[in-house]
Design a protein that fits this description.
The chain is of the alpha/beta class. Helices cover 41% and strands 21% of the residues. The chain contains five helices and five strands. The radius of gyration is 13 Å and the shape is globular.
Length: 126
Amino acid sequence: MRLKTYIVEDNPTIRENLIGTLEELANINSVGTADTENEGKEWLTENPNEWDLAIVDLFLKQGSGLGVLAACRDRPSRQKVVVLSNYATTDIRQRCAQLGVDAVFDKSNEIDDLVDYCIQQRFPSD
């Protein structure tokens, strides 16, 4: 089963590399992308049955990933939201946890952990 994944990232190079890496290594299916807070919030809330995983950067072309996270707070438990950011500090991780984020990954050194997380979501242990 491919994990239907929506990515909110404003850097086109990072976004395309991330999609390619996750499609190859974690067998995800990219169902869409956004580079602004409003676009991400709108798509994720208006298409609740079209995604399993949202990967959100915190600093966007317009707005903030925190707004996207808040919009997804009341999602079904089967849907996962993770943050992928260069600013994965302790304070940011705590704020993300308050917003109901399932995991936070640092872009600079936790991409392998993100891949492993995606694989685990495809094959959850009962």
